[in-house]
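User: Before I run my own analysis I want an independent prediction to cross-check against. Here's the chain; please return only the structure tokens and, at the end, one sentence I can use as a sanity check.
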Amino acid sequence: MPQGPVRVLRLGLRPYPDALRVQERCVAAARAARPRGAPGESLVLSEPAQPVYTWGLRGAPGAAAAARLRARGAGLVAARRGGHVTFHGPGQLVAFPVLDLRRRRLPLRRYVQALEELGLRLCRRLGLGAARALPPPFTGVWMGDSKICAIGVHCGNHITSHGLALNCCTDLSWFEHIVPCGLEGKGVTSLSQELGRHVTVEHVLEPFLDSFREVFDCTLVFSEDPGD
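Assistant: Structure tokens:
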């Protein structure tokens, strides 16, 4: 059965902490909508305006490591999501789906698999038929042994937050200063690197939204005002 509408907030090039604040407003709206039986679901899309390293519930970098990352000109932000330290920056599509898994009758593990399917469909739309998901404990979308789309989620009271980060034309050298997602021996790649041409966040927005509609069986409504 098709789900109700999901409101899409396209923030464009914005500081990562700004996108987090918009996400939190969307989470509050979804919780407030539940007693009324309204969907109240959102999808926050942004491209981080500055380089930033974030970490999830598995721990922050130590003081010396944090100082080294700051010295390279990156911000440091703690995020309420699963996963280890990773990088967000220009050239990357960051998507925060705020969905009600109880209303959708969707277990959390199945939701993570749906995000992987979303990334796989997008890659295939763009001509990357070799994109794949790996069995647990790995998450995300991979090209060989290199991750092209990272996934890290939080779920509180069945409302999701955080989500995925897709490398479009990201400067991958930023990942060299960390162990991305805590995975030793694995690499990182981007759409631009795999396709051999410059692929911007703007280029992938429409195919991303088409894939989102298919995977989550919903209609999308668009809002340019993140405060409404």
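Sanity check: The chain has one domain: 6-223.
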